[in-house]
Amino acid sequence: MPWFKRTEHQIVPTEGHEVRTEGLWTKCEQCGKVLFKPDLDANLQVCPHCGRHFKFDARARIDNLLGPGYELVDLELRSTDPLNFTDLKPYKSRLKQAQAKTGLNDAIVNAVGKLGTQDVVISAMEYGFIGGSMGAVVGETIARAVDRALDKRVPLIIISASGGARMMEGIASLMQLAKISAGLARMDDAKIPYISLMTDPTTGGVTASFAMLGDLNIAEPGALIGFAGPRVIEQTIRQKLPPGFQRSEFLLEHGFLDAIVERKNLKSYLAKTLEWMTKGN
Predict the structure, then answer these.
(1) Phi-psi region of 2 (alpha: psi -120 to 50; beta: other; left: phi over 0)
(2) Nearby residues of 222 by Cβ (< 8 Å), 6 or more positions away
(3) Does residue 4 lie within any of the structural domains?
(4) Does residue 49 share a domain with residue 125?
(5) CB neighbours of 85 closer than 8 A, spacing ≥ 6?
(6) Going by C-beta distance under 8 Å and a sequence separation of 6 or more, which residues neighbour residue 188?
């Protein structure tokens, strides 16, 4: 028997005791630092070293912005499969997997509550649900948020996080662009404020419709915002794009955004902004 093998007084683990380290750490793709996930959660999913804004789920965004007592609404709608669509896997299967993964029926959450002292309606997109793609349910849910804002005459905030229209639903997904845009035009006629917050990423049909129609268009730092992705554009025009192209800082510099707001400052920024936007109403 080898001399280094312990034969007496062996260490016996306590029954049921388990040390778990898997999933407790993540690496920041921007600065390369290894981050403890609970610390990252406490910092609103923002890297404390370089300020990179990680993806933030829809319910966490709402909870971060609205005061206690807010209400989640319009959660009952579910997507169907009008085209019986299949690519690498059936669309029905994708929906079931996304619903199990996120605990949501689709890629959107509506809420009503107070942001500071102001009553608001918030519609937040969930990127974890099929890339935040906009199908008929997302379109209808945002349209209902518009209707609520109109009925109550309170400001609307839409938080975008999306790869664009959900093409598994074909023309039904594309019709949502016009449907939501028409509702926002009614809000404009009624002089009710609409603020669009763009996060990483905001692309495709979402950018081509409601994301860019805000009375105030703001974004988080470093967010990818555009219609087609940079790789597709480079392949089309056969030229290299400028550094930082389609990132929020580039768009602010070229007049497509009104402001870039860090996540930690977002609640106070919106509260102050809504105060002057609703003054006199």
Answers:
(1) beta
(2) 30, 52, 53, 200, 247, 248, 249
(3) no
(4) no
(5) 91, 168, 169, 170
(6) 194, 215
Instruction: Give residue 185's identity as a one-letter amino acid code.
Output: A
d(CA 167, CA 96) in angstroms, rounded, equals 17
- Shared domain for 116 and 46, answered yes or no, is no
Asked if residues 138 and 176 have their Cβ atoms less than 8 Å apart, the reply is yes
Provide the domain count of the chain.
Answer: 2
Residues 49 and 60 in one domain: no
| Cβ proximity of 263 and 56 under 8 Å | yes
Structure tokens at 7: 């034969």
Q: Packing angle between helix 136-152 and helix 171-189, nearest 10 degrees?
A: 10
Q: Looking at the structure, do residues 70 and 115 belong to the same domain, yes or no?
A: yes
152/142 Cα distance (integer angstroms): 15
For 62, the enclosing helix (H) or strand (E) is: helix 58-65
What is the full per-residue pLDDT of the chain (281 aa) written as tens digits? 555 555 566 666 666 555 555 579 999 999 999 999 999 999 999 999 999 999 999 999 999 999 999 999 999 999 999 999 999 999 999 999 999 999 999 999 999 999 999 999 999 999 999 999 999 999 999 999 999 999 999 999 999 999 999 999 999 999 999 999 999 999 999 999 999 999 999 999 999 999 999 999 999 999 999 999 888 999 999 999 999 999 999 999 999 999 999 999 999 999 999 999 998 66
> For residue 41, what are the domain limits?
20-54
Name the domain boundary from 31, 54, 77.
54
43 and 168 housed in the same domain: no
Residue 138 lies in a domain: yes
Q: Give dist(CA 248, CA 198) in Å, integer.
A: 9
